[in-house]
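Render this sequence as a predicted structure.
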Amino acid sequence: MGGFDGYDALIVKERINNIMIPLRTIWDDACSEYHWNLADPFRSIGRHLPSPTHNEREIFLYSDWKRVLEKLDPFYRTAVEVMIMTGLSSSEMAGLRKTDIKGGYLYIRTSVVRKIEKNQLKNGYRKRRIPITKELGKRLDSATMKTESEFLFPSKRGKYFNGESLRKNAWTKALKAAEVEYRHLYCLRHTFAAWSLTLGMDPNRLVSLMGHGTKKMVYEVYGKYVEGLEHDREDILAYMGEDFLLSPKRKSPLLAKANSVEISF
């Protein structure tokens, strides 16, 4: 089942998965009631579903990114900007609290996977702190003022930030409206890395900011040349801020109360 573009593949997969939900439920109930010890017939269904023909590691050129941002639901706009400015994953975004902002840094200490909060991150390097630049600080200030939740980016229902909900309700629609080829939400993390390298960031520093253990990921995954990205350098630097490479400390007056809480690893 190949040949689908990103949008069509997602629609088909969602429809098939919706159909499979009651079938899985019937199978699980039968196994429980009759004590069946049979292989799960749904275990390998994913390999038979259509896959988008795009490369999920594709990154954004600046002009494409601005068009998508303009079409995005305003509720999610600040969140995705923070993602592309920091390289945070959806699960890390979900775990961010206002108290994770202190002394000019954004501390990454927890993640939320399938609505379960985890203090143990993906690896030992994922617990890290990210300098709050002027432009990033503006987005964090905006997020803080918009919600009374302890979390920086709660969902519309006040629960954990949910990347899958964002994809279904806003992300895919914005890409299509902007006439930009579909790409996975995780591409924001890849774009952060590619933009940072384009601006001339020290790879060792990038490794630390992204929570990797070695430069291998930087060179093998993010270091691939992207045609035309070098022409975006001035626009990217203006967007990220002149202090992005210098990363001075910044203490936001709007977050003074949150910053009064001690944070330690």
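Summary. Residues 6-34 form the longest helix (29 residues). The radius of gyration is 20 Å.
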